[in-house]
Amino acid sequence: MDLSTTTAPWAPRMLSVLRIVSALIFMAHGTQKILGFPASTMDPAMFSLPWIAGVLELVGGALLLIGLFSRPVAFLLSGEMAVAYFLAHAPKSVFPALNGGDAAILYCFVFLYIFFAGPGPWSVDARIGRGRY
């Protein structure tokens, strides 16, 4: 039995699952910064870089969650995570496991993948016929 024959039909659906789960987890960073949930010590000043990041995480995460404007949003969020890594994490240490930037790197490349691969079939973009998905 060829495993690729069994798994290939699920690949587009799993792309949607990757997008949805990543967006849900990503949104939690925005809700923490902007809405104070879950509770944290973060309370960024309005229009500061952390506040702007929180808005991007909250709004961009919500758009990715439903799969609307997925490619441009994923590209923007990928860039946000690259900037976040180099501004907030890299100066602490060269090692991502020590500087706390491993999640930023992972989000950066997951969103970059979504930019190139599209949102998958379970998305608003697919429903309204925007591009391949």
Automatic annotation (TrEMBL):
Primary site of residence: membrane
Keyword Cell membrane appears in the UniProt entry: yes
Compartment(s) of residence: Cell membrane
Source organism superkingdom: Bacteria
Keywords attached to this entry: Cell membrane, Membrane, Transmembrane, Transmembrane helix
InterPro entries: DoxX, DoxX-like_oxidoreductase
KW Cell membrane (keyword) present: yes
Protein's membrane topology: Multi-pass membrane protein
Transmembrane segments: 46-66, 103-124
Similarity field: Belongs to the DoxX family.
Name used for this protein in its record: DoxX family protein
